[in-house]
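WARN retry 2 of 3 for item q-0093 after timeout on previous attempt; input resubmitted unchanged.
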Amino acid sequence: MWFKAASVFQFLDDFTTTAEELETALAPKAYEPVNRRQLLSYGWAPPMGDDNEQLVHSASGFMLLKARREERILPSSVIAEHMAERIQKLEKTLERKVRGKEKLEIRDNVVMELTPQAFTKSSYEQVLILPQQGLLVIDNASAKKVDQCTALLRDSIGSLPIAPVQTEIGQAGLFTRWLKGTRELPKDLLMGDECVLQDEDNIAGTVRCNKQDLTSDEIRALSTTGKHVQKLGLTLNETVNFVLDDEFVFSKIKFVDTSPDDGSDVADLDPRAIFDNNFSLMALEFSTLFPRMIEIFGGYKPSTDL
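OK item q-0093 returned
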């Protein structure tokens, strides 16, 4: 449940949908296992696990959803191998070369026949809705998977007026000034030990620094040679560590004082109570983190609906 990454969107209108209304809207798009002829199944799954049927977990005014993707693993090399065998046999029978359209038909047949035998794997995207903050957060940094998840949510509820968070002050510019030391960090923000520097003309390439003292002369010198800081490790309020990039995407999120509850001190609580507790702690941290980081970078930049 604990997010390790976060792609953050702002609602362009107030989000007034209740948990009960959202539950009803998601139900028709609930996840179903892939059948023998499917390569992919994608839908909503219970955030607490398959033993709980609720598709919306609500606590402390926050809502959590979980999308499940199940796909069959059918490597292109396996398809190519079977295709080559069939093409070779067909060419021998026909005594001529097999052409493009025929090859496509052979490929379709191979995929159809191999699909039921393929293993499956599952992956998940969690969606956190912060109604009072006007934010929607997806625990993935992959633009492709985030787009798939927002498309599923939009398809489920009919409309999703959101836009990626964009701030008045660009992240890269402020990152670079912090690293150079020409601009002080806010008092509630600490610099971490990780950064990525990108050459402005993209000729000299990228420099990645990990577990380094970013205030050292050596690191600061890099930011004075035409490189801008693309990603920077930071800590807010000494409670949450993260790496933020120049598109306002968070990764490597780690809660300093709020670790997942293993139940050792709450033996009398049921799993739902433990989940509620952890979820509320995480959501409360995020309800402070994201608005504060938006504020640090000058507030919202006017954006258009997706």
